[in-house]
Design a protein that fits this description.
alpha+beta; OB fold (Dihydrolipoamide Acetyltransferase, E2P); 4 domains; five-stranded mixed beta barrel; 9 helices; 15 strands; globular; binds zinc ion
Length: 391
């Protein structure tokens, strides 16, 4: 079985890039380091370089498992009688945090799709979640899933990330993301899917609402203080401009209505332009009366149809102020039902031009003001205060 260790040269160049020492110099140091080990171990330059890098220099290099073990496609995995040692690969379509119980620590779910189907990978324990986070995989990456086991969660067969499981971005991509896409005609009610569609028109329904629960507040202007009309929320908030957006889209054979919820609009779903092709991930819902809809989780233009950058777009070029970050964070926490600090930083930096320091400062301020709280490794929006009636 070949090793997953990176090539010696690759590691040496990686170290050189990190600490600025020349390759020849590092090689000498590795030779010195070798003397601490018996020959059976020290005879491998590759292993010695790895150990020196990790244990002496403290440099972590992402390990990408070698792709030699037999890989199964997702359809076969789901049909197979085998319940363990499953290896598969595909695109990471979505990653989310969830809890099995209210007070448990956050678990991680990942939707993986290939040309034959889709499955979900679940990581239930803190240590496993940490492993997934440290792998650095992102939505849209082509990933290898190794040594997983099959289980049933909420009546659905999926994969469990257990001890000995690995997930990592693959070195080689076996097929394009587009090949995972489902035709509009084969979408199934209630199922999530990736589709590739062209936007024909858009219809935006803007309103002023509560930044926490996104409920509409009647008779207010943007920026005004108002009482949120939601029973659950009910506290004083700053009226924020929000919008439901619906797009008419087609895959060439069938039309489909894409609906973007206010919580996603402008976040994971940037404004889509007519005449461009997008990879869109979401859930299909058949509705008898109002026509079927595809509720969008994320959308990305396909290569060649990226949005123009610079002059016309405003969002990404605006430097975020501390106040802007402070107002965005509760909205995000509310719509995601709590987020880890890492995920929050990742999302905020995607949304606005801001630094990690600005975000942690905003978090501190919000905590101090009692607007958010931290529990089980996640930040949450604090429950509204019912006292302090100013009349
Ligand atoms: Zn509200």
């Amino acid at each position: 079985m070949p090793t997953s260790l990176p090539e010696t040269e690759t590691m040496l160049l990686y170290i050189e890039g990190r600490i600025g020492k020349k390759v020849a110099e590092i090689k000498k140091e590795v030779e010195e380091y070798k003397k601490n080990f018996a020959s059976v171990v020290s005879s491998s330059d590759r292993l010695m370089t790895y150990l020196y890098m990790k244990n002496v220099l403290g440099i972590e290099m992402p390990i990408i498992p070698s792709q030699t073990e037999e890989m199964q496609n997702i359809a076969d995995v789901l049909k197979s009688a085998a319940q363990s040692k499953i290896n598969t690969s595909g695109y990471l379509l979505r990653m989310w945090d969830f809890k099995t119980k209210k007070d448990s620590s956050p678990c991680k779910g990942m939707a993986i799709g290939d040309r034959t189907g889709m499955t979900e990978v679940m990581a239930f324990f803190k240590e496993r979640v940490k492993q997934v986070e440290e792998s650095g995989i992102k939505e849209g990456d082509f990933v290898l899933c190794q040594n997983m086991s099959v289980s049933e969660y909420k009546g659905k067969k999926n994969l469990t990330f257990g001890s000995g499981s690995q997930i990592a971005k693959a070195k080689e991509i076996s097929f394009k993301l587009e090949e995972v896409a489902t035709k509009v005609s084969s979408l199934k009610n209630g199922a999530s899917a990736l589709i590739q569609v062209t936007v024909l028109n858009s219809d935006e329904h803007p309103y002023f609402g509560c930044p926490d629960c996104l409920k509409k507040i009647p008779d207010v202007k943007e920026g005004q203080k108002a009482k949120c009309p939601s029973e659950k929320c009910g506290h004083e908030v700053i009226a924020t401009k929000l919008a439901f957006v619906r797009y008419l889209a087609t895959d060439g054979d069938n039309d489909l209505t894409l609906s973007v919820a206010p919580s996603r609009n402008g976040n994971s779903v940037k404004k889509m332009s007519t005449g461009k092709i997008y990879n869109v991930y979401g859930r299909y819902k058949e509705k008898e009366k109002r026509g079927s809809e595809f509720s969008v989780d994320w959308a990305k233009p396909v290569a060649g149809f990226e949005e123009e950058t610079g002059t016309t777009t405003s969002k990404s070029t605006v430097k975020a102020s501390g106040d802007m970050i402070k107002s965005k964070i509760p909205v995000l926490l509310k719509s995601w039902k709590g987020m880890t600090e890492k995920k929050l930083i990742e999302t905020c930096t995607k949304l606005m031009e801001c630094s990690e320091e600005q975000i942690t400062a905003a978090l501190k301020a919000l905590m101090k003001e009692g607007k958010i709280y931290y529990e089980n490794d996640m930040y949450h929006v604090a429950k509204p205060l019912v006292d302090k009636k100013e009349e």
